[in-house]
Specification:
single chain, 153 residues, mainly alpha
């Protein structure tokens, strides 16, 4: 998901047009955009972390297919947690830029992309027990940051 986001940011906001009002707003937005891209990259690097073995009794007891779903949810939560601050900073700066310049092109592109990301998720149904355990596991250092899904057994 964040690979696609990174590509989108590079394509949609390469240097902005020269018709932007206010060089200062442009520079501030580009700075925040770069920080966000850097954070996405750092989080992607964390996805190389290998986790072996699974020591949690509840997670180990799950059927293989369900375990993969739970691990995917844990990793998605970790990825989101990893980028959320920089994503918010970028979104706020983009809104500020739009308000100051009146240029809605970049904001509209961002909103369309974000809506596509939210529509991309499966309608996953988790039981209350699964959700409680996902919350519990996501607070553990092992699952707090993104990890390599293929390394988990």
């Amino acid at each position: 998901m964040y690979n696609l986001l990174y590509i989108f940011l590079i394509i949609s906001f390469p240097s902005f047009s020269l018709s932007m009002n206010g060089a200062s707003e442009k520079m501030q937005l580009l700075k925040v955009k770069q920080e966000y891209e850097n954070q996405i990259h750092q989080c992607q690097l964390l996805e190389n972390r290998k986790l072996k073995p699974i020591n949690d009794p509840w997670l180990s007891s799950l059927p293989l297919e369900r375990k993969k779903i739970i691990l995917n949810e844990l990793n998605n939560a970790a990825l989101q947690r990893c980028v959320i601050k920089k994503e918010k900073d970028f979104t706020y700066k983009l809104l500020d830029y739009t308000a100051k310049t009146g240029d809605k092109l970049f904001l509209n592109s961002w909103l369309i992309f974000q809506s596509a990301l939210y529509g991309e998720r499966d309608n996953l149904v988790l039981t209350e027990k699964e959700q409680k355990n996902i919350n519990r596991l996501s607070e553990m250092p092992k699952y707090y940051y993104p990890f390599n899904m293929k390394s988990v057994s």
